[in-house]
Amino acid sequence: MASYSMKHMLTFCTVAEYGGFVGAESVLGMSQPAISTHIRDFEIRLGFQLCHRGRSGFSLTEKGQLVYRKCRDMLNNISDFESELGELRDKLTGTLRLGLIDSTITNHDFPISEAIHRFYGRKNDVSLKLVVLPPEELERELLNGNLHIALGLFHNRHSGLSYRHLCMEDHGFYCGRRHPLFGLGNADITLETLRQYPVSSRTYLHHAELQGLMKAWDVAMVSNMEAQAILITSGSFLGFLPTHYARQWVERGEMRAIDHLDLSWQSEFSMAMRVSPAPQEFVRIFAEDVEATIKAASLGKPGEPT
């Protein structure tokens, strides 16, 4: 530990997580030459190369990938240790590492911004790291210890994680204004009609979205809802979207809900956490705030900290 510093590890992890020196520059508040010096010094002290950089782009070496995982674990453990010391002083402190799936802000049944407001309505020194990722990546980051809490749709549940039900999300089937079906009457649109056109589906909801159509071909795969909305509004693909997210395009006349064929379905929004170790105090309190805020939203009442 004496041969290299926390600064070396933090710089290296940030460069790895932001895909190179350029991406890490603004996050670290350092110039690229300064970052390069830190990485080179770290490599000299370790005795091997951590990353490839140059005209071919940035990438970690095999040893660099291993060092990244160990450094990230150590930084996370130090952050968690500092928060535990804060608990001994009866003070909420630490870094809350929170993950979400994309496009939740329009879901009024899942008011995550209200939960954050509730948490920071009480006195604390907790900083927040918020990331938006697909469900499978959220679960992986939880298991690796890089996240404390993940909120989203989790269909493939892992035994190392616990899941708490939060609310249900409605999904509808849509076509864009430039699609051939947009101007047709309901009587002219049947399931057989829909099967003649390409469909876009999210990778993590592929089975759930397509089982009603019984369709496994002419499918475009996307990783998030923004990409799904882009393909639907292009007029080249049909697809499912959460009704709260699609509403903005429907109201502008850029999408149409095909809602007469009983294709709508619901998914379960859950909060996922590691089974062990037990969550720290500030993590537990934030989890309670999420649940209390969603309960208040279901009753039509604002949630406030206690």
Topology of this protein?
Layout: H1 6-17, H2 21-28, H3 32-46, E1 51-52, E2 59-60, H4 62-88, E3 93-100, H5 112-119, E4 125-132, H6 135-143, E5 149-153, E6 161-176, H7 191-194, E7 199-202, H8 206-210, E8 219-222, H9 225-233, E9 238-242, H10 243-251, E10 255-257, E11 265-274, H11 281-298
Parallel strand pairs: 3-4, 3-5, 7-8, 7-9
Antiparallel strand pairs: 1-2, 5-11, 6-9, 6-10, 6-11
Helix pairs in contact: 1-2, 1-3, 1-4, 5-11
Strand content: 15-25%
Approximate shape: globular
Q: What is the β-strand count?
A: 11
Give a short account of the largest sheet: 9 strands, mixed
SSE order in H/E notation? HHHEEHEHEHEEHEHEHEHEEH
Helix content: 40-55%
Low-confidence stretches: none
Number of helices: 11
Structural class computed from helices and strand pairing: alpha/beta
Kindly, what is the distance between the CA atoms of the first and last residues, rounded to a whole number of angstroms? 42 Å
Protein model, in words:
The chain is α/β, with parallel strands linked by helices and 306 residues long. 41% of the residues lie in helices and 22% in strands. The chain contains eleven helices and eleven strands. Strands 3, 4, 5, 6, 7, 8, 9, 10 and 11 form a nine-stranded mixed sheet that branches. A two-stranded antiparallel sheet has the order 1-2. Helix 8 (206-210) links the parallel strand 7 and strand 8.
